[in-house]
């Protein structure tokens, strides 16, 4: 073959290769980006667009330009929620049936098993950059359990369940400090005390990751996992100042105002019941002046933490727009559980310890909302974090995708954490791997939410109930019916959530057939999923953070 023909052939091959590369680049660039935002211990009605007096303009904008769901469920507490969120599995199937502690059984090993693929692993297999900034909490004892080893290209944040917002000092936790390290890509960071605010750093690192990822010819998945407004109550003075006097009316008056807003904006339907007044919460107008001063400061700081979280969502939105990726990005916002009930004297996180080396809100303060204000945060639902009544595991849900989701919609939804993975993979056109690294994957039990978010369906067509179990608390949701029992009672309660989301009328005795049918389905699910009777763990669990229920 002469030189001229060789040159011509090489040129043709090069042109073909470039054309193929350009086609591939176009395909990659047209794939949707996905941002999943989760906040920590925030109540159902704490966003402005869900009825709150807290200023959340960025999330309000996403709600106005996207859709909200009235019914979206988490797993009622931090680590089990994150296990389901990250894998699309029920938490027991993923290995975190109880918490991030190893109780000696596969369903309770306290970290994600290899059979349960993470969002990072699956998105990466589909050609995505995978980014995470914030709280992990599904495995920390071995580096093999860390985010970078479970599919995330970039990670900044904490591996455990809580942190001081101003420094890396150990949190007061029982008899010994609770060590919390800041990690970036497997390396421990040692910032100067009081030189940063953690929520800001979660936002800043997310923005930095997006800048760095922009140099790659890939779509991205970003998991933005804020710790706010989780204990301890700590916020920047400039944010706290915005809320001075905003809660002087107290939880009773403000709850009624939230209920009115929830009805006006269509989140709470007119024929829906409202949870009865919590008898453990004192009437605001019966408190002394000093008691009111003590209590209102807590909610001012809590509101400042939510406000600052929203500001950091705004940073990410600004970066998306600057990178010209805002029109092709799905954003989903949820909370990991309801607001936390209990009081300092028996709060499972605090073990009765009160340690305030500074005013509430500062880096020396380790206080939390307590049940009085959690009662407001979970309006109009019943009960609190770690509970299977609606206030314990109902999350606000916002989905925003300008080119796909119709603006201003509010739908019933009835979605669950296990639905997010199939939703994202469906949207991204990623085939869920049947096997990864030689390990057969657990199949996904959830349903894609795209028919609701994009096609206009009012709720998920499941074909099967949703199930929960955590620390002996159990629940089943099937259509309008909800079956629930709270440990240590094993008495089933039955509610028709079609008109009784406040769970005011237990109709179990009038519907024994439905109770029997749903309880049989629950025990079948529990057996297949690896659920173990909580009383077998109870003696050991009393030494473990989060083991106790509200009391």
From TrEMBL:
It is an enzyme of class 3 (hydrolase). One of its GO terms (molecular function) is hydrolase activity. Its EC number is 3.1.6.-. It comes from the Bacteria. InterPro entries: Alkaline_phosphatase_core_sf, Sulfatase, Sulfatase_CS, Sulfatase_N. Residues 32-430 form the Sulfatase N-terminal domain. Keywords: Calcium, Hydrolase, Metal-binding, Signal. Pfam families: Sulfatase. Residues 1-25 form the signal peptide. Belongs to the sulfatase family. This is Arylsulfatase. The lineage of its organism: Bacteria, Pseudomonadati, Bacteroidota, Flavobacteriia, Flavobacteriales.
